[in-house]
Amino acid sequence: xxxxxxxxxxxIPNYNGKIHLEECLKxxxxxxxxxxxxxxxxxxxxxxxxxxxxENFPDVNILSLKxxxxxxxxxxxxxxxxxxxxxxxxxxxxxxxxxxxxxLVMAAEKNGDNHIYSSKVLFYDEPEKINTxxxxxxxxxxxxxxxxxKKDKNKYNKVRLVASPSGCSMLVKKxxxxxxxxxxxxxxxxxxxxxxxxxxxxxxHRTYYIPESIVxxxxxxxxxxxxxxxxxxxxxxxxxxxxxxxxxxSNMIKGFFISLIFDLVRIFTFLVHGNFSxxxxxxxxxxxxxxxxxxxxxxxxxxxxxxxxxxxxxxEMDLIASLNWCLKEYNRLGK
Length: 335
Fold this sequence. Notes:
12 strands
C-alpha cells in the first residue's frame, strides 16, 4: 500500500461508522491486488473513527474534514487527495471479496478506461440475495436497484450495461470523474451515483456491471432505513434535481407530472399511518428543490447542450424504465 504512484485509490467516506471499519479494512488487506492506496474521508465524526484508524491502520491516508460535507462532496474531496490513476468508491459498511478490485481493474482494461464499472453487491446478512447490480432510471428521476432482494443466480453473472453504478462500490478513471465534475455536491447524500451515471451516459460513457467483483453490504446501516426523514428529504430533493438536469424537455414535464401524483399517493399513505415527519420531509424536499432551481438551470443547460444520447435511445437500451415496470417493481417490493 505504500506506493508513491498507486494505480488505484480506494475512497472510503465515513460519518460515525467506527463500528464497521475494522471488518471493512481487514477485508481490504486480503484482496489480490497490491498497487493501491486507501483514502479515508471522515465527515467530522464524533465516535472516534479517526483515532481508531490512526491506531489500527496506520497505512491508511486520512482526510479529516472539519464538518459533515455529506457523501457526495466528501467523496469529491477524497478524490482531490488521491494519487491513483483509477478511483474506487467503497462504503464503510462493507466487506469485499478477495478478487473484488482485481476484477474491476481487469474490466476497465478490457472494455476501456472511459467508462464506469460497478460491482455485484450482496446483502451482508443474506449473502444469497442481491442488494444491487447497478441502477435503472425511473420516470420520476430516482433509481431502482436492479434485482433488489432477488436470489443470486447464475443468470445474473453476466457482464451487462446498467444506467448507473452503485456508489457502494464503483470504479472510474480519476480523469473521467474529474472531467464530469464529480458527484454533484448539492445532493449531499442519495442518488448522486444515479445522477453521475446518467450524466456519463449522456456524455458518451457507459456503466458496466461486473459480476465477479463482489461486495457484501450492511444495507441501511450508515444511511438509515428507507423511511426516515433524512433519507426521504434527500431522495425527494435529489430526484427532482435529476429530472430538471438530465431529462429532455418532454420527459422533464412528464417526470414532474408523475412526481406530483407519486407525492400525493405517498403523502396520503404517510397520513394514514400517522407518519407526519415523513410528510414534512417530502414537503421540505420540494422546498429545497425550488430554492435550488436557479443553481440547477445552468447545469441543465450544459448537460442538454453537450448530450450525445437521447432519452429514446436510453429507453431502448433499458436504461430508463417504463412507468409500468416501476409500478410492478414497487408492488413486488411492497412499497
